[in-house]
Amino acid sequence: MSIGQAFLGLLESQPRHGYDLKRAYDERFGSDRPLAYGQVYSTLSRLLKHGLVTVDSVEPGEGPDRKRYAITQAGVTDVEQWLASPEKPEPYLQNTLYMKVILALLTGRPAAELLDTQRAEHLRLMRELTRRKTGGDLADQLICDHALFHLEADLRWLELTAARLDDLARKVRA
Q1: Which residue in 12, 118, 143, 169 is a FRET match for 81, CA 20 to 30 A apart?
Q2: Half-sphere exposure at residue 136, Cβ-oriented, CA atoms within 13 angstroms
Q3: CA-to-CA distance for 105 and 143, rounded, in angstroms?
Q4: Taking phi first (over 0 means left), then psi (-120 to 50 degrees means alpha), and beta for anything else, what does residue 60 get?
Q5: Are 7 and 47 in contact (CB under 8 A)?
Q6: Predicted structure pTM score
Q7: Mean pLDDT in order along the chain per 10 residues (174 residues)
């Protein structure tokens, strides 16, 4: 996800201080990984440099002056273009799990155990996400559904790979 575009979208509704942007971002998108303050201000600095935001006002405080940021017309155009463009699907053609299976086979290690361990971890995470989804609001439900669908696809791949493991081992070792 582009943090810069998220900030621009959040700023469209009203100008905000960096602290307020961080809080709004974390509430909407960062429940699992909240933004660091350094990331907030480096992103705002980059947006300011590119003319996508401007400093709307400066308020003196106990520490450094508090800047309130507002989106510019260029920022509105940028976020509109970003929202209109589709995300590239990520097919995971060279993922780490595939690499581990091949390396286990190449080195004579038990690839079936690796697949079983990974399956157990996927199932554990699916149970956790299902619990979170059950008690969550609509945003939590949608985010959890997205993750669960990906995990289900991974589980299908794990089952298929386990079923083809003997054939794969012969090909890898040949």
Answers
A1: 143
A2: 17
A3: 35
A4: beta
A5: yes
A6: 0.68
A7: 87 93 88 86 96 92 84 94 79 74 87 93 95 91 94 94 94 84
Q: How far apart are CA 66 and CA 64, in angstroms?
A: 6
Spatial distance between the Cα atoms of 2 and 134, rounded to a whole number of angstroms: 28
Residue type, 123: L
**What φ, ψ does residue 36 adopt, rounded to 5°?**
-80, 150
Is residue 16, in this structure, part of any structural domain at all?
yes
106 and 58: one domain?
Answer: no
Say if CB 106 and CB 172 are below 8 A apart.
yes
Which tokens is 50 given?
């590119």
User: How many structural domains is the chain composed of?
Assistant: 2
Q: Has residue 23 been placed in a domain?
A: yes
First CA to last CA distance, the chain: 42
Which range of residues forms the domain containing residue 159? Answer: 96-173
Query: Which residue has 């060279």 as its token pair?
Result: 94
Strand, helix or coil for residue 39: helix
Beta strands 53-59 and 16-17, pairing class: unpaired
